[in-house]
Structure formats: C-alpha cells, structure tokens
Design brief:
With 119 residues, the chain is of the alpha+beta class. The chain is built from three helices and six strands, in the order H-E-E-E-E-H-E-H-E. The relative contact order is 0.17.
C-alpha cells in the first residue's frame, strides 16, 4: 500500500461521506410512499409500495449504472408521487436514466398514459 492509498482510505474516517445510492446489485428493493395509489397496497397489510429489481453488476450493464438505486431516482419518484411540481396523470413520460427505472414505475403508478425508458 502506497502513501496515496493510505490517504484515500483515511478520507472517509475524517469526513462524513454520503453514498448517493442504495441497494446491492442483484437484490430487490421497495419504494414506499404513503401518497402512492391505493392499489399499490392491495392484498397485503404493508405500506403502499412499488417493488423494483437492482440488476447484477456486469460488463453488459456498467454503462447503464443500474446496479444501484440512485438517490436522484428516489427524489424524482417522490416528486412524481406528490404530483408537485410534476403531474404525470394522462401524460406521456420518457425517463432518461435514473438507475433501476423507479421514476418510470412511479409515473406508471400515478396514471401516466405512456411511459418509455431511454434504453
């Protein structure tokens, strides 16, 4: 281990570090939000939620960066579900990438007429 490695490893012990993503490659996730439509909780006693899958990290999908659920995707899903400032009801929506496609799932759940993904 050289001096640069020691320095880089020590930075995280000195400063707070926020990982801008959650979940592990190859795992399932759940986006929970009480403002989701009621059917998102039908047939169960769990909160209203949308399940999503985080793909395995592989050379085939490294350019997509879909091997985590990025915070930006969760924030966008929150804005879509809250209908403010984004109301997708009856509209066409195209997602230009947010990892696992959570904003697309939220748009579809909130009544978008058509949802497309960039890839």
């Amino acid at each position: 281990m050289d001096d640069v490695d020691v320095f880089e490893d020590a930075l995280f012990t000195l400063f707070a570090h926020h990982q801008p993503a959650r979940g592990d490659p190859g795992s399932a996730g759940r986006y929970e939000n009480a403002a989701l439509p009621a059917w998102c909780a039908e047939g169960c006693d769990k909160p209203r939620a949308l399940p999503y899958w985080i793909p395995e990290a592989s050379s085939a999908n490294t350019l997509l960066f879909a091997h985590h659920q990025w915070d930006a995707g969760v924030l966008l899903a929150d804005l879509i579900v809250a209908h403010a400032p984004i109301d997708v009801q009856g509209r066409s929506v195209v997602e230009l990438g947010a990892g696992t496609g959570l904003p697309s799932l939220a748009a579809a759940a909130c009544g978008a007429a058509q949802v497309r993904r960039a890839y």
